[in-house]
Amino acid sequence: MAPHLRPNRRHRPVTPRRVGVALVAALTLALSGCGGAKVGEEGGSSTGGTAAKDCGTFNIAINPWVGYEANAAVVAYVAEKDLGCKVTKKDLKEEVAWQGFGTGEVDAVVENWGHEDLKKKYITDQKTALEAGPTGNIGIIGWYIPPWLEKENPDITDWKNLNKYSDLFKTSESGGKGQLLDGDPSFVTNDEALVKNLDLNYKVVYAGSETALIQAFRQAEAQKKPVIGYFYEPQWFLSEIPLVKVNLPPYETGCDADPAKVACDYPEYKLDKIVSKKFTDSGSPAYELVKNFTWTNDDQNLVAKYIAEDKMKPEDAAEKWVEANRSKVEAWLP
Amino acid sequence: MATLAQPRVAVRWPDRRVLVLGILAFWVLGYIALRGRNTLPLSPADLTPLHERINEINDSIGASRNSNPVFLYFFNEIRLVIDNLVTFIQSLIAQPGFGRTVPLIGWLGVVAIATYLSWLFGNIRVAFLAGAGFVFLGLQGLWEESMDTLALTLAAVLVALAIGIPLGVWAGLSNRVNRILTPVLDFMQTMPTFVYLAPLTLFFLIGPASAVIATLIYAMPPVIRITAHGIRSVPATTVEATESLGSTRRQTLTKVLLPMSKRTTILGVNQTIMAALAMVTIAALIDAPGLGQTVIKALQTLDVGTAFNAGLAIVVLAIVLDRVTTAASERVERERRRAATGRTRRSRQPLLIGGGIVTLGSVYLSYTYVWAAEFPDDVNIGRTIAQGAESATNWAQTNLSGLTNGFKDVITTVLLNPFQSLLTESPWWLVGLVVVALAMVLGGAWAAITSAVCLALIVGTGLWQDAMTTLAATLVATVLVMILGLVVGVWMGRSSRADTVVRPVVDAAAVMPAFVYLVPFLALFSATRFTAIVAAIVYAAPVAIKIIADGIRGVPATTVEAATSAGSSRWQIIRHVQLPMSRTALTLATNQGLIYVLSMVVVGGLVGAGALGYDVVAGFSQGQLYGKGLAAGVAIVLLGVMLDRISQAAARRTESSHR
């Protein structure tokens, strides 16, 4: 710009600001000339579905683990497509989801692991929730090791030999003993009592999240490092790395009655479904669906694999499984 | 007075450093003699009567929910108002509403509005930044999620400001209100969110209201504090002058105090927005819609790439909002000065009107046409970003984990383990005595009394040993934060080029949700206390770095030039001129570093830190541990208040003794 051309109001220089505004204006004009599809023109089919007459809204809790998501995705897909329900998924931790039975905002929890304390509080005392039968999945809790470790030391899966190997499991956290990695905080563990009562030279270290446990096992297998920790199935991660379960003294009824004296393995959990009282009384076909829903661990693992490893959206994973297993689905319909 | 007082102090207290060393030596001797006695341990599954009592209270509140009039007429009303506010904003920009299949304003309209407002309140640079940032969110394939997050954040910030600014003004005017409010605000800021997340859904049900209120509790304190600070910083002479001219209190407030503190208040708004965005992922645990959901979902399958992409969107939102509000506060300041000097600038009114018309046009287009309503999904860079992040993490995990684990082992054995056993294995009364004595020497009588009260209450929570484990990790993390803060802060403060490069990185580290980097950190450092420390450093170092850089830059250039011409080397200048002269900044950085580290205690509990963090997480997850989790939350608050009061008192002392 020549110095004698002092900018004034009439002839302002071309500043970036003006260019920007002009560009936006030009773009706007050009695009509006082209037009395009108008909002509301092409849509309209989203409220389709013929059987929508008495299902209404179905509020399903989504607890934060993939196996649960698999159950919920399939139930939600069938409820939407076959029963014409309007499904609202609510992402909640278990405690909060159960609380939602009382406040009427959650209709169903479709994979429950035990939770005797919650059953007492909401089913027996408050009478706001009801059991709706097993999901068909069997939950197993225990101590697991990466497969390479079992291949090299086959006798490690017997708890009696654990002390022999405790040196392997030393870490910066375990204070000279072997480290037993615990702790998805959502689960009750007896591990400290077990270590004490079985006289194991181990220290329980609280990893604090499922993420931390999975990462520890994944890395242990990849780098051939020894790890022993608390884990459970069904779990999508087991289809990536088939962890090996350590055999603790077998479970017998009542052997875990006193938490401080436990010296036996965890019981098998028959995973079940919980529904709100209100939902049961509503006569919604979605309630019948939830009540009838059962499938196997393999079924769940497959859908969980679609979600976790193939990175499919839960809706798409459910669609894929449902369309391939129509006969199983028919049996759940009211 | 000061000249009289100093020699007297010097006689009474020979040298503070000697005293501190003496106390520490006494502690070590006591530890050796009494190791393992009176350590007040409590195993993770055990409860004290206090914890059980809290459980009972919690249960009875839940049971009476549907009959209690407080619920029916008070909480329900609040919930309705907030729910409606959020749903309204959502249907404007994020979710289908008003009987339409898409939001009222589509992406083009939102981008136009964001750009225009940034220009109106800020300047053209931040306007471009805002426009580009919002388009980037769409390109990431996260338009709807981002708008949900924005809607929730806007609602929370609006409510926070509506309550916070009046309270802040009040606290600025009245010393008594300020005294009452300060501990409440401390409590709101340091109490871990996990503790009140579940009860909130009991009071306000599952839905937007609970999410907004959870965000509010954490995000409101900054605007209250900073507004009060702004009012207090208006020079007393100005206020007196106005009063002597016969202004009423009301006139003084509206004509002098509020306008003069406007800039500071906007900074408070800025801090509140940042704090609200920090809550995005945690609120997702009670069904808050938006980017937090994406992060949490991705974490379940350890999908670092997707989590990073969503985390990046939060960072983009934060940086845009931060720069725009900062620019707005600068504009306010400029205009005030201009008004004071009587100079006028050429008006930008015609341009603004033009821009407004373009914006309205865009809004209309995005209301009418599908292409401007729904962000086109044929250009999606989200997947590329996710894959990039994924392969970077994989590379680091396989190639660096040997090195990083070695580093972890060294720090743990040399620093963390000895310090932790000193704290946890000494008798509780010995630790208490040492802390109170240190508070006395460093901060004075008032700090000592506060510490004694806090320590007694921690003993009362039944979680003494866990609290000491957490304290050990917190202090180690703070030391590392300060080392990092000094190195990077001094570098940034001395070189403006370094500042330009490092600042965005530092900002990103401060707002990137911790959940995103936990997975790679777990691979690099295993599930250990050290992983928790590293996560805390990532979160807390940015604050320390920024404060220190600011302090270094504040040292007058003439002083540095004088030292240079006197022949001082660069190292001598840093050590003998710049650092001593930014002493206030250093103490402030330590104080803020500590508080930020403490706010990561719970996240640490998710990756192996155990202790109080794990207690809180487990309390959120298991009903029978709720009371214990609450007690652990209170213990964290108490640790925070204690460390804050000691470090502030120490800072005041250093300042006055060097004046």
List its salient traits.
heterodimer, A: 334 residues, alpha/beta, D-Maltodextrin-Binding Protein, domain 2, seven-stranded mixed sheet, two-stranded parallel sheet, disordered N terminus, B: 659 residues, mainly alpha, MetI-like fold, globular
β-strand number of chain A:
9
- What is the number of strand segments of chain B? 0
Query: Which CATH architecture of the largest domain in chain B is right?
Result: Orthogonal Bundle
Category by helix and strand content of chain B: mainly alpha
Q: Would you give the CATH topology of the largest domain in chain B?
A: MetI-like fold
CATH-assigned homologous superfamily of the largest domain in chain B: MetI-like
Structural write-up:
The complex is a heterodimer of chains A (334) and B (659). The termini of chain A are far apart. With 334 residues, chain A is α/β, with parallel strands linked by helices. In chain A, helix 2 (66-81) crosses helix 11 and helix 2 crosses helix 12. Chain A contains 13 helices and nine strands. In chain A, strands 3, 4, 5, 6, 7, 8 and 9 form a seven-stranded mixed β-sheet that branches. Chain A has two domains: 57-137 and 270-330, 3-Layer(aba) Sandwich (D-Maltodextrin-Binding Protein, domain 2), CATH 3.40.190; 140-261, D-Maltodextrin-Binding Protein, domain 2, CATH 3.40.190.100. In chain A, helix 2 (66-81) links the parallel strand 1 and strand 2 (86-91). Chain A is globular and about 70 Å long. Chain A has helices spanning 16-34, 66-81, 94-103, 116-125, 147-152, 191-197, 210-222, 237-240, 277-281, 285-292, 297-308, 314-324, 326-330; strands spanning 57-62, 86-91, 108-112, 129-145, 178-182, 202-206, 228-233, 244-245, 269-276. Chain B is an all-alpha fold. Chain B has two domains: 10-35 and 49-54 and 386-658, MetI-like (MetI-like fold); 68-380, MetI-like (MetI-like fold), CATH 1.10.3720. Chain B contains 31 helices and no strands. Chain B is globular, with a radius of gyration of 26 Å. Residues 1-11 of chain B have low confidence and may be disordered. Chains A and B meet through helix 1, helix 3, helix 4, strand 6 and helix 7 of A and helix 3, helix 6, helix 9, helix 15 and helix 17 of B.
